[in-house]
User: What shape does this take?
Amino acid sequence: MKKLLFILLTLSLNSFGQTAEEYFNNGFSKYNLKDYSGAIADYNNAIRLKPDYADAYNNRGVAMYFLKDMNAACSDWSKAGELGSANALTSLQNYCKQIVEAAEAQAEAEAQAEAEAEAQASRYEAQLAREAAEESASIIGKQDVRIGNQVWTKTNLNVTTYRNGDKIPQVQDGKAWSNLTTGAWCYYENKTANGTKYGKLYNWDAVCDPRGLAPNGYHIPTDNEWTILTNYLGGESEAGTKMKSRSGWKENGNGTNNSGFNGLPAGCRGFIGGFNGIGVNGSWWDSSEKNARTLLCINGHAVKFYGHKLYGFSVRCIKD
Assistant: This one.
């Protein structure tokens, strides 16, 4: 037993005491015996002890070649060539040209794919900007009406982005709406069909946001501009009838729409998040804090209304 332990200890010490060159020679011997895997294991140890061992890289590449691992072989020959092995460079030229060309082609394809992905991302961003502009144009550009010396839009604003393209969040939950401190929009009763007919309802923070709610070339009307409009139409007590649409109002409250303003009874959203008034009233923000103009089904008035900033009202734009 003691003799066996001595033999094992001797073998272990001899193993740990081998130099890079001895591992290299062992690998060469195994290579000659066509033990390519054993040779590779010895070349691995030689390289571990001597990382710049060019001949070890070259010979390991040859063993890899006979094991038909061409990628590994060419990688070793490339490294050996960098370390000064002429034989490795010859092997690279003779056996690895197609692999190198394929790798270069792959790298070029990956670079082209990356460039195309970046270009596509840029095109997508440009498309989003165009769509935002087109959305504004589709709602505003062909929907103007001249009333006196002013040019108003004939439809309620229905945009989802600010003028610079930033998204305006849609907020459906009533509690979340009542706690808002930034701009938001919603459909009446959160129904898309109401948005199609009446446009969106916006809170005051969306109206006054410095990024601009109105599209280019338009702005949110001031209190004075609303007054100019109602005065032109005969004053607050008469203007409502001329501003209201000819249908859609309850209790026989339809207007004549002689002005072309086409005011719809879109209702509103209250500051605690509930909805009310569709078919009965329509309210539009002005650019003065919390001010709005309201039309009612019960009379022909166009009245100035003080609205809490958490109300959701319609928005009309006036041309710059």
Residues 1-15, 136-141 have pLDDT under 50 and may be disordered.
